[in-house]
Amino acid sequence: MTTSLTTEAAGTQSRTAASTTGQRTEAEFARAEAHTAHNYHPLPVVVAHAEGAWMTDVDGRRHLDLLSGYSALNFGHSHPRLLRAAHEQLDSLTLTSRAFVHDRFADFTAALAALCGKELVLPMNTGAEAVETAIKVARKWGYEAKGVPADRAEIIVMSGNFHGRTTTIVGFSDDPDARDGFGPFTPGFVPVPYGDEAALAAAFGPHTVAVLAEPIQGEGGVVIPPAGYLRAVRRLCTEHGALFLADEIQAGLGRTGRTFACDHEDVVPDVYILGKALGGGIVPVSAVVADRDVLGVLRPGQHGSTFGGNPLACAVGQAVVEMLATGDLQRRALELGTAMRERLEAMVGSGALAVRTRGLWAGIDVDPAVGTGRDVCEALLARGVLAKDTHGSTIRLAPPLVIDPEDLSWGLDQLAAVIS
Ligand SMILES: *Cc1c(COP(=O)(O)O)cnc(C)c1O
Asked: Residue 222 CA to chain centroid, in angstroms?
């Protein structure tokens, strides 16, 4: 109900918290805040256990997870197959560093290369590291393969982008929270409006080595570019001899109903940047995947990571790739996504201004009259549903792909009740 939500939103922080938390939750939440940097503003819930799409908090209450760790938990919590792979690996070998080869490396990298239809894989840990890796590779490729003069390489980036939190990456973000106070920034990035083919075409120059884009902007609010845009990016990159670097960290690996979001336009980028779900919600695993003519520019000593491609990461990552290779989860995401879209579209005009969906992924722009995105998420929490706002008034839904259809439907009932 609008009235109850706005009443709650008008209340103090502690009143809101009191209405949504239990005793242990309040104590643990306060303890968690006491000795940590406040670089996050979490919802007042303290999770102790989770399975599938359900999380249980320290007071024993169950919550439906409609965020999935921003797509890191595409396979849900504690997926038995992924847990088995992790447990088995824990008991035999966990880390060698890349100074030595281990026996899980070849299988994982071969499987991931095959899933991507590419020749080579460069494993890292976090998404931001994979993006940094792609930037380094694109620059080196530009100097060596394209003949760009030293230190002049340019990479075209998109307005509204989110590629992670390193100093180089936030330097080409246009989100003031991400960027302000962290300069000076790395030069060599040329921003263009996302989804604008003409602006992109005009931005290419002789020193352009790559276009870096999310095929759908997750953090931006599940922003889907106009139909044909990804094909245009592909065509323009080919015409100008530049690499298309697709950041599929949040959009890829089944979320949109296809293995990659680029698949919706039958587009094959030069470089796939992967992360999040690649680690099965168990360990951080990221990767840059491309053909030999691109990734081959790196030679020993020029890039690396102590933990990148470690045995535990490879064991889990391989299980993830095997699960995706059948296409079952992608089909499930499509089916559930169709049902979700119908429900969400019915909310437009009753609390939602607009909804955007692709596969099992949605951005819902909440009518400001209802409250902020944060207010909605707090009201959802009180009803046992966990979701996350982005950019003020947008709710992003990314349910685990394994979610039970009835649970999803119940979760959407809660959303409808909160915003209508
Ligand atoms: C989450 C995300 C990243 C950064 O990944 P981290 O693992 O948090 O460093 C980069 N790009 C996109 C599109 C993301 O969603």
From this structure: 10
In the residue annotation, 260 being an active-site residue is answered as no
Domain ranges within the chain, ordered by starting residue: 80-326
Instruction: Report d(CA 273, CA 246) in Å as an integer.
Output: 6
Residue 364 in tokens: 């819902």
Residue owning tokens 């955007």: 356
Interacting residues of 49 by C-beta distance below 8 A, sequence separation 6+: 55, 56
CA 151 – CA 154 distance, rounded (Å): 9
CA distance 134 to 145: 15
> Is 275 in a helix, a strand, or coil?
coil
Tokens of 243: 């690499």
Domain 80-326 has CATH 3.40.1160.10: no
Q: Annotated catalytic, 162?
A: yes
What radius of gyration, in Å, describes the C-alpha atoms of the chain? Answer: 22
Q: Which atom of ligand 1 is nearest to the CA of 275?
A: 7
pLDDT of residue 213: 99
Average pLDDT over residues 45-74: 97
Distance between alpha carbon 67 and the CA centroid of its chain, in Å?
A: 10
Calculate how far, in angstroms, residue 250's C-alpha sits from the geometric centre of ligand 1: 7
CA 166 to chain CA mean position, Å? 16
Angle of the 405-419 helix axis to the 373-382 helix axis, nearest 10:
120
Centre of ligand 1 from the C-alpha of residue 10, in Å: 33
Task: Give the model's pLDDT for residue 6.
Answer: 40
Give pLDDT tens digits for 152-175. Answer: 999 999 999 999 999 999 999 999
First vs last Cα of the chain: how many Å apart?
6
- Count helices and strands (H / E) in the chain: 16, 15
Residue 156 three-state SS:
strand
For residue 156, what are the β-bridge partners? 190, 211
Annotated catalytic residue within 65, 247, 375, 407: 247
Take atom 15 of ligand 1 and give the residue whose Cα is closest. Answer: 250
Residue 12: band (very low, low, confident or very high) from pLDDT cuts 50, 70, 90: very low
Q: What's at 137, amino acid-wise? A: V
Is the CB–ligand 1 distance for residue 323 below 6 Å?
no
Q: Is 220 in the pocket of ligand 1 (CB under 6 A)?
A: no
Q: Is 103 in the active site?
A: no
The pLDDT, as a whole number, for residue 391 is 87
- Cis-peptide, bond into residue 184, ω within 30° of zero: yes
